[in-house]
Sequence to fold (130 residues):
Amino acid sequence: QLQLVESGGGLVQPGGSLRLSCAVSGFTLDYYAIGWFRQAPGKEREGVSCMKSSDGSTSYADSVKGRFTISRDNAKNTVYLQMNTLKPEDTAVYYCAAAQKDVSLLFRLCGFSKDEYDYWGQGTQVAVSS
Fold:
């Protein structure tokens, strides 16, 4: 079983930046991918970015390409989401999630289906407003 804890959210002006962190802990730290999702009020939870643990390959939603960057620090068991040029429409609760059971992730890019992910953090609020 894995535990994920997000941090780094807050209030930022449009055009600003934030870096979210996802600290991963547990009896075993084996997982196939980490994903970042977000959920705005009244909307479905949507995938933002993900990274495979085997080769570090990444995927991004079209809405954040060129603005967000996912990265990891294996020594700290932490995955980051650097968010630049933030827009009001980026306002949401951001969640990280870990995929530990879907073996097919060894052979394909990670994606944004919530069913791929087995463990979720509690979320961190990001608000973009002037």
